[in-house]
Predict the 3D structure of the following.
Amino acid sequence: MVKAVLITALTLGLLMGSFSDSASAKKSPKISISVILKGQDESGLKRFAYDVSTPGNANFRKFLTPSQVATKYGASTHAVKAVQGFFKKNGIKSQVVAGNLSVTVKGSYAKLGRVLKAKAIGLKNGDYYTRLTYPKSVRKYIKMTIGYSKAAPKKKRSPSIALKLRRTLSNQGKRLIHRPWTKIA
């Protein structure tokens, strides 16, 4: 009786999906991705990076603190909270990198793929890239995501010659017996 109740509860839980996140999260490797945010003044940040690293420039080696970068070039507080809120709502940990230019997100590969609707997209040259889909409420604040890659779909292999022969013979009502140790003279 107890076994039947337990099996029924487990079956219902699996059908309803209540155990799927924890089970797949335990099997899936943990990864860390970087979500790059759109800054307040991206062209200004590029100019600053060039100026601070060019010998002879008046701003050469005059670096800013992370809080100065956040104030002058980083994403707005509203944007950072929106992105972090999205991940928190989906049970994924995130942390803002000093300067408000990116958010580090940590979670299982499977869960991040499910939440971001990861899809491997084929290119004409045979390469693949991964498309991640964010909701509209957050998409406007995100420039790019680095560190997530969905494996390319496996190509369908053509059947081996032995399999083709086996199918042909079985369609004719005959059987192919495969003996790899038999020496053919």
About this structure: The first strand starts at residue 30 and ends at 37. Strands lie at 30-37, 93-96, 102-108, 119-122, 128-131, 142-146. The two ends are 64 Å apart (CA to CA). The chain has eight helices and six strands.
